[in-house]
Amino acid sequence: MSSSHNLKCDGSSFLIDITSALSKVTANYTISSAKRRWRFAFIAICSRRVMLSLAKEVISKRKPHHHYTKLFQTQSSTSSTTLDIIEPLVTQPVSNETNHYTLVPDVDKARLANMVKDKNLEVLTEFGGVERVANVLGTIPTKGILGSDDDITKRRELFGSNTYQRPPPKIFLHFVLEAFNDTTILILLVCAGLSLGFGIKEHGPGEGWYEGGSIFVAVFLVVVVSALSNYRQERQFDKLSKISNNIKVEVVRNGRPQQISIFEVLVGDIVSLKIGDQIPADGLFLVGHSLQVDESSMTGESDYVEIEPLKSPFLLSGAKVVDGYAQMLVTSVGTNTAWGQMMSSITGDTKERTPLQARLDKLTSSIGKVGLAVAFLVLLVLLIRYFTGNSQDKYGNTEFNGSKTDINDVFNAVVRIVAAAVTIVVVAIPEGLPLAVTLTLAYSMKRMMADHAMVRKLSACETMGSATVICTDKTGTLTLNQMRVTKFWLGLENVMENFSNAMAPNVLELFHQGVGLNTTGSVYKPSSVSEPEISGSPTEKAILLWAVSDLGMDMDELKQKHTVLHVETFNSEKKRSGVAIRKETNNTVHVHWKGAAEMILAMCSNYIDSNGTRKSLDEERSKLEKIIQGMAASSLRCIAFAHMEISEDIDYSDKEKAHEILRENGLTLLGIVGLKDPCRPDVKKAVETCKLAGVDIKMITGDNIFTAKAIATECGILDLNDCANVGEVVEGVEFRNYTEEERMEKVDKIRVMARSSPLDKHLMVQCLRKKGHVVAVTGDGTNDAPALKEADIGLSMGIQGTEVAKESSDIVILDDNFNSVATVLRWGRCVYNNIQKFIQFQLTVNVAALVINFIAAVSSGDVPLTTVQLLWVNLIMDTLGALALATERPTKELMQKRPIGRTEPLITSIMWRNLLAQALYQIAVLLVLQFYGKSIFNVSKEVKDTLIFNTFVLCQVFNEFNSRSMEKLNVFEGIHKNHLFLGIVGITIVLQIMMVEFLRKFADTERLTWMQWGICIVIAALSWPIAWLIKLIPVSNKPFFSYTKWVKLLVFKTKQAFLS
User: Do 810 and 454 form a contact (C-beta atoms < 8 A)?
Assistant: First the structure.
């Protein structure tokens, strides 16, 4: 009989003894019934406490395979005292094949979640430690959860999913109300209301509503279209946000490592963590080494937290792994975690303003002020003309006759004049500029997503177009990241085949130890006949595959026979990793190092040959160095393995002493492997494209200088004869040791930096930015975060990039391909170019409309374009025009221009040339029609005004074609591919025909004859040959307004002379 059973029996006897003693007491003594009840209660409480202590003792002595596990709270109905009860659970039979624990359905989820959030060791002890918590959650620490569909569904129902409640998306009505917040729109609505009231009063409800109602409809159209555009953009950004938050996490389920979405992580999952990973949920440390996490996003503390199995095993979601590696047990997910609660409370209402949007806001404000001034002058002139009796109605009668004029007519006239002035402001203010930026950014983000680039920060879209330098990694970006071991040197012998037979058994065993135990990768073999599934970094995977397939390594057997004592994980600074292990069969301790070949070689004093004989390196060191250089020159990454057996007895719980065991000198070199990572097939073309665009490419790599040169030459970064040029290829340590002046002098010339650390990359970015360059940087590691943040555009890698790197970047390259970097550059230039096209188009309309209305109002007191007509022009140029021009795709010509500088003006001299020519043509034509149209065409005033309106709109339609290219003579190139542009032009023409021919009362127009339509089209079409001729006139690259500086200087000097 088991001890636990004996104990149980002993407990029962003890309770019987208490009961019998109580009976004797009550039999021998006569007591009152009240006292008897108190004594029974006292004994019952004592008995309950005895049972509790016995239950705890039973549990502590039970075997591990029993399920004993639930902590919950009960409260006596007769007492306010809360007692912690441990309820032993009946062991359920499980299959020997799966050997999985059964999930306890009524585990205290809140207590489990709060234990991790509060980092409460006492509660963890009450649960029985990390392994006991794993048992409760139905998890085997080495195999994870079962992972079947039923198991996943049950866990999701019990503990929830790893998602948090997002703020509800803004509905369409929100954007409609937002659009109504515009002051000018509100003024127009007031004017429309007054006009409607006076019109109905004067002409009756049958015809009196036309003018006011038309303004209402026009304002409504402008508001709805604007709101619809903003609503679509918001939805697009929400989609991109969801994609960017969908992080991939490695978990172990049923013994198999697999990548899943962070949203699919469940309570009970075993999650593998490495440097740079974001912790996906709250949990407990299971196994691992040297784990440090950054909890600053949660706690605000900048110091890294060291995770220890006994003192500090708690891991909080949202924290980042900064050192070491580990496996964690997930205890709570979603809104049950501190991170989930915090994210649920964030409203997400902050709107990012890009630098270009800020510049356009200033431009909009400046144009708006000019429009306001013109509108005020028009208002003043029209009011003076009206009240002085110099204005006539459509029948030629004087509108104001002093006291004879009805007060309602006066109010109606004043409202009409105010509405006309306000409409001029509406047309003058280019609301379409922010809309055009929004549209082109949203469109380009969508297209870039299809081209494997995900934009995290809007400003990067436009800034990338200004990039002058791209600092790129090598591995995975310029190369395919598909590494294979292609060469193996055992001592001075180049082993070509039969690797395991080429070395002595003891040497083979050391290789197994050095590869299989000094790694962050894993090998999973479902069955003896199936292919192994290997996970880890590309380098780790290549070496593990070589060891398993060519050296016959069995990972599971290796781990059973050895105990890992101490680990130093790989990092970009040291470029090596080390491990101390104990072999269980003979209790010997071995130290293994793996890393960059020349660095490992420098740590060795001996090498081992194929027979297992140890030999001195003194005479052979130079030969091995040449072997490494020869492999590197063949574009191979060289990894060396070194070993040492030690006998010292060290206390491994003492971290400082444990660190001493990893000796860094006097080692024995085991061998060197060469890994081939071929260049991407299209990378050379992408590099040439960037060079033609005036963008300098610099390769920054951790590989040695020979490998770096070979890859850079293969990719086209270096020409074949460039390697001899002094200063083009440097090592990180050399660049680091330059003085500040030397770095600034030489940084432009450097094309390749080898053996660089993240600090060197950061230093180079700083130097380039100080010299005025717009710098884009690619990075994938945690240590790349400073350089990614320092750069103007940070480009992280979507496949190999850590979560820390991605969060520090502006754009994520989803396929880790340099060709996608070149695509981002092309799209960045396209965004900027599209905005400039629209500015040119919009300013042409603004200048023409303002000048025509102002001159007509001052000279004749008549505004040729009515409120509704101006609102229609505003609609087609702001919304439809923005949509047409903002969705132009990149052209080859964009990549043949020099980069746009930091200080280059938004409106260039070329743009001023184009827009002034078109604006002057439109002004001249429309003023001729205004003053001489009636006599030239022998038509009425109403038809003449319709001709002006129709010609003005058609001029904008034809000018949209001119705006497709600011410099090219052929503006129709590639137009058949832009279906959206053609569709918008077609819609605009159809709507214009409806406005003129069918909505006459609404638009205040008259029907035109075929001849009159032909005249309007011919006048508008003349803008094409005018644009063609104007583009032949050369202009200086000097900013347009720089020519007016001498005028400003002269005015300033004159003022000073006058004041003095």
Answer: no
Residue 522 · residue 257 · CB < 8 Å: yes
The C-alpha atoms of residue 902 and residue 773 are separated, in whole angstroms, by 8
User: Quick one: which of 633, 635, 707, 639 has its CA closest to 676?
Assistant: 635
| HSE toward the beta carbon, residue 528, CA cutoff 13 A | 0
Question: Do residues 639 and 707 touch, judged by C-beta distance below 8 A?
Answer: no
Band of the pLDDT at 100, cuts 50, 70, 90? low
Nearest-CA neighbor of 166 among 337, 352, 340?
A: 340
The Cα 177–Cα 200 span in angstroms is: 28
For 356, the enclosing helix (H) or strand (E) is helix 355-387
Rounded CA gap, 826 and 895, in Å? 7
Q: Is residue 141 exposed (0-12), middle (13-18) or buried (19+ Cβ within 10 Å)?
A: middle
Beta-bridge partner residues of 384? none
Q: Specify the pLDDT at position 297.
A: 67
Burial 447-471 (b: 16+ CB within 10 A, else e): bbbebbbbbbebbbbbbbbbbbbbb
What is the chain's mean pLDDT, rounded?
80
Selected catalytic residue, list 269, 323, 473, 816: 473
**How many angstroms from the chain centroid is the CA of residue 696?**
25
CB 277 within 8 A of CB 166: no
Work out the pLDDT band at 469, boundaries 50, 70, 90.
Answer: very high
Q: What is the model's pTM?
A: 0.69
**Structure-block tokens of residue 1048:** 């400003």
Question: Which whole number is the average pLDDT over 595-609?
Answer: 92
- The SS3 call for residue 583 is strand
Given a cut of 70, whether residue 83 has pLDDT beyond it is no
> What's the CA gap between 582 and 559, in Å, rounded?
11
Mean pLDDT of 429-435: 66
The pLDDT value recorded for residue 479 is 85
Q: Got the DSSP string for 300-319?
A: ---SPEEPBTTTB-EE-TT-
For 170, 401, 780, the CA distances from 931, given in Å and listed in that order, are: 50, 26, 68
Q: Is 810 a catalytic residue?
A: no
The listed range with the strongest mean pLDDT (165-174, 873-882, 914-923) is: 914-923
Stretch 708-716: mean pLDDT: 90
Residue 329 β-bridge partners: 270, 284
Q: What is the pLDDT of residue 687?
A: 92
What is the DSSP secondary-structure string of 382-439? Answer: HHHHHHTT--B-TTS-BS--GGGS-HHHHHHHHHHHHHHHHHHHHHHS-THHHHHHHH
DSSP characters over 693-745: TT-EEEEE-SS-HHHHHHHHHHHTSS-TTGGGSTTSEEEHHHHHHS-HHHHHH
Name, in order, each residue with C-beta under 8 angstroms of 136's C-beta and a sequence gap of 6 or more. Answer: 69, 70, 104, 107, 127
> Which of 714, 729, 728, 786 is CA-nearest to residue 757?
786
Q: How far apart are CA 166 and CA 671, in angstroms?
A: 54
Measured CA to CA in angstroms, residue 505 lies from 494, 563, 640, 671, 754 at distances of 18, 21, 19, 15, 37
What is the side-by-side order of every strand in the sheet holding 811-813? 453-455, 811-813, 793-797, 775-779, 469-472, 696-700, 752-754, 729-731
Integer Cα distance of 893 and 823 in angstroms: 14
User: What is the token pair recorded at 265?
Assistant: 């992580």
Measured distance CA(428)–CA(843) in Å, rounded: 9
